[in-house]
Write a structure and sequence with these properties.
Helices cover 76% and strands 1% of the residues. The protein is mainly α. It has one domain. The termini are far apart. The N terminus is likely disordered.
Length: 523
């Protein structure tokens, strides 16, 4: 019999019958409660039946957002061991719900990213069918992606759903193709920016702390600086994105507020790091532990901001349908009733706790090996990339950014380790037939040296051994370096493929669902 969450012979995660039963009963109960509430409060309205169905689909969509998109925010922290899977999911669920309810806003745009023109829709009934089809298509695609363990963008899913249903309802001219083009461009922009920034910070931490003779002293000096940079990034990020629906503020003012948070954080963190580092030995594993608490805070803040932002992906279409049913009008922005926001907040949290484990493991463990430092760089890159993209007006996906950052730190590790292996082979080559103890002593000194000293040692060794030469065949054998693949290429290909097909698959599903609804409801 398989253990809880164990894997079978082909690597699929299996669960006992009791867990599977709860994962069916709880979502069904949640959707049933939504049905009862909306039935009692809206059944008498014209179009009330459609609103009841839309509310149930909205709850289903919210659970899928929680299962897929929310997992990206805590995946690196869980994969690095800073949080257990259970603790991470509970913390993220609370933060997601808090972000949605506290900072989710009271008004939402009905057409995500302005990809279709609602003025070209003939009547409110067609508009309701369109939004319902788009919402259901996005939810179904997210459900499938989560089952496959593919981290995809929920924003792209709902964009594809609304786009496909819109074209089905109003023709090709209804789409704003320039907006669609910008979204397609974000498939490249998001992961590339995230990967570059994460790799850059990982390289800086390695160069200024890890690749030093006295790592403890370097950590006491520089860890507070890196934590302060994170404080600036998240202070700015929360003002710009997490609280934007409650408090409108310009980019410059937000960065100044983030800077004030960073300065305060530095003076708070510096003595804490100094005390914590006193008892540490000069080992990378112990320096790694200094980044654990900032990493946990970053996961919580990312989840809060995600709940505030992405709850609109679940409740936006539902709020639009609610407004169209109650007013008979088609509006670009509508108010979000409290009951609609609660559906979004609770659905995201429930979906994360029940179904988020698969994507959390994929992001945090199955692409590349993470530790606290690497996960810290990933979280920092996610916040900074969103800040840069917001300032430049670029449409980016936080999912793509986070996964791109995971790719970035993994590929940097490959480059660093391959370079190190080549240097070791050079040293062995240049020592030639020296006694093994001489070679071992040099290698031990080389490993303990910082980057500058390593370069000087290798340069001096090359100069000293200019007379030494091996046969071409021997030299080829000694310098053959095995480069480890620290990023699983199969995962990279699967994730990128899922990203590419998200919008077209959601669009096609939405068009089919729209025609089905229209065929059923029209006389």
């Amino acid at each position: 019999m398989l253990e809880r969450g164990s894997k079978d012979s082909v690597g699929r995660i299996s669960f006992p019958t009791g867990i599977i039963l709860w994962r069916i009963l709880l979502p069904a109960s949640f959707v049933g409660i939504i049905f009862l509430f909306t039935y009692n409060s809206h059944i008498g309205l014209p179009g009330g039946t459609l609103l009841i169905v839309a509310a149930m689909v909205g709850g289903y969509m919210a659970m899928n957002i929680g299962a897929n998109d929310s997992a990206n925010n805590i995946g690196p922290a869980v994969g690095a061991g800073a949080l257990t899977l259970g603790a991470g999911m509970v913390m993220a669920a609370i933060a997601e719900a808090s972000g949605a309810l506290i900072a989710g806003g009271d008004v939402v745009g009905t057409i995500k990213k302005g990809i279709i023109d609602p003025a070209l829709i003939n009547d409110s009934s067609t508009y309701i069918w369109l939004m319902l089809a788009g919402l259901l298509a996005a939810a179904l695609w997210l459900n499938l992606a989560t089952y496959l363990g593919a981290p995809v963008s929920t924003t792209h899913s709902i964009v594809g759903g609304v786009l496909g249903a819109g074209i089905a309802a109003g023709g090709w001219h209804i789409a704003a193709w320039d907006k669609v083009g910008a979204i397609v461009a974000s498939w490249v922009i998001s992961p590339f920016l995230g990967g570059i920034i994460a790799a850059l910070f990982l390289y800086l931490i390695k160069r200024t702390i890890i690749f030093r003779r006295d790592m403890v002293s370097a950590a006491i000096l520089r860890v507070p600086l890196f934590v302060s940079i994170m404080a600036w990034a998240f202070g700015t990020y929360l003002v710009l994105k997490g609280l934007k629906k409650l408090w409108k503020i310009d980019f410059f003012s937000a960065t100044l507020m983030g800077l004030a948070v960073a300065v305060a954080t530095y003076f708070i963190v510096k003595p804490i790091i100094s005390r914590a580092a006193k008892d540490l030995s000069n080992k990378r594993e112990e320096i790694n532990g200094l980044f654990m608490v900032p990493l946990i805070f970053s996961a919580a803040l990312l989840s809060f901001a995600h709940g505030a932002n992405d709850v609109a992906n679940a409740v936006g279409p539902l709020a639009a349908i609610n407004d169209a049913v109650t007013t008979g009008q088609i509006a670009k922005k509508v108010a979000i009733p409290l009951w609609v926001m609660v559906i979004g907040a609770l659905g995201i949290s429930l979906g994360l706790i029940l179904f988020g484990a698969r994507v959390i493991r994929r992001v945090g463990q199955e692409i590349t090996e993470l530790d606290h430092i690497r996960a810290f760089c990933i979280a920092l890159a996610a916040a900074i990339t969103v800040i840069i993209a917001s300032h430049l007006g670029l449409p980016v996906s936080t999912t793509h950014i986070t996964v791109g950052a995971v790719f970035g730190v993994g590929f940097l590790r490959e480059m660093v380790e391959a370079n190190h292996a080549r240097k070791i082979e050079q040293i062995r080559d240049l020592h030639g037939e020296d006694a093994p103890d001489i070679l071992d002593a040099f290698l031990n000194e080389y490993e303990a040296a910082n980057l500058e000293e390593k370069g000087q040692m290798l340069k001096a060794l090359k100069k000293d051994r200019e007379h030494f030469a091996l046969s071409k065949q021997d030299r080829k054998g000694l310098r053959k370096v095995y480069q480890k693949e620290l990023v699983k290429r199969s995962m990279v290909y699967k994730v990128i493929a899922a990203w590419i097909i998200t919008v077209p698959v959601a669009a096609m599903l939405a068009a089919l669902i729209y025609f089905m609804i229209r065929g059923i409801l029209l006389p």
